[in-house]
Amino acid sequence: VRKIDFRVLPPLAIMFAISIIDRINIGSARVLGMNKELELTGNRYNVCLLLFFPAYILAELPSNYFLVKFRPAIWLTFILFSWGAVLTGMGFTHNWRVLAFLRFVLGIFEGGMLPGMVYIISSWYCRFEVHRRIGWAYSVGVLSSAFAGVLSYALGLMGGIRHMAAWRWVYSASGTTMAVAIICYFWLASFPEESRFLKAEDKDLYIARLERDRGNSATEPITWKVLKETLSDWTTWMTWLLFTFTNSSTYALAFFVPSILTGMGYAGLKASLFSAWPYLPTIRLLWIGSYISDKTKMRIPIIIFQSILMIIGFIRINQVRYLGVFFATMGCQCNVPAQISLAQMNAIGSARRSIVAVVTVWGGASGGIIGSLIFRTQDALHYTSGLYTSISMASCIILGMLGWAPIITFVTSGLKKVL
Fold this sequence. Notes:
By secondary structure, this protein is mainly α. It folds into two domains: 1-218, MFS general substrate transporter like domains (Growth Hormone, Chain: A), CATH 1.20.1250.20; 220-410, MFS general substrate transporter like domains (Growth Hormone, Chain: A). 80% of the residues lie in helices and 0% in strands. It contains 17 helices and no strands. Helix 2 (44-70) packs parallel to helix 5 (113-124), helix 3 packs antiparallel against helix 8 (177-187) and helix 10 (224-231) crosses helix 16 (350-374). The relative contact order is 0.14. The chain crosses the membrane at residues 45-67, 73-92, 104-124, 136-157, 169-188, 237-261, 273-292, 298-317, 355-375, 387-411. Pfam families: MFS_1.
């Protein structure tokens, strides 16, 4: 298992972390001068944020299909290399419409990263090992969120070098993504039955372990039959809805915390720097929560506790602003791997898990669209409507989780009586 951890988790975590930095650095670029230079007046900034997500949604299901067809190392490194090229181009744009178009293209390439990562991890591990692994890989993404602000601060100091504005360096430096893609191509393992780094007897032993845990280990292609069955299951869409609520707040914080901090008196580069610190205690809570979840084999109580933290955080942003950002960030970010793990462990068969991973992450993209819009420019300095919207969505997550087990029990018992 440790050998598999080394070949599966670090490359996936690195690629996911890069995807997080590359999609949210627009927030730091905005406060470093992009807003003025590209004339992002009115709702233009919100449009640039929003266009990323329809492309992200459209790309996810085809991406997981190609993931199985071409192997993880080929497909994931291809999309990683491609979005690195797109981001490099963003550093040289002089028109907000071009920026908006490139954000759409970025969504096409990044769309396959998170569902692909989730599917690969759930293919390699037993059911109650998955939350810790997804949590560990996701925590590297959270860490990247923390240091995205610090990195932007450092790159912002390069403003004026080669006659380039500070915000352009934020994008141009993303060209290193293409070099990382080449390294990950040789590092990332394939699916269990296709792996070459395990000896034959080790592979047989490990596949038998997966068979004992969940009754199947083979990687199945997505078929129209399985797709129809999965998409007609109401629990699939309940998962999507609750994950949408979580990610609406997650993305809103990522996009607008630098602006909120600017309203607190932290200008420009300092706003990017101070946005980093809330992510550090978030990682610790994420590790503790995922360990308890796998150990106790319970996920819903963990999700409810983290949703309460979200509510406390968004309430406190209006009162003790910076402390509120800490609590809200901890609740939002820790709920993401918890809800993904809950969805994956209730899906039977690798093809169904792949589709459920996609639908769940559709909730992430849908949440991104909402998160792009709820903190409106005209609501600055207090962003009251965005905060109350986030509190309402966190409350819905709690209600959904409290009703999840009784509803499933009721439906299951009713079906048994009918049959």
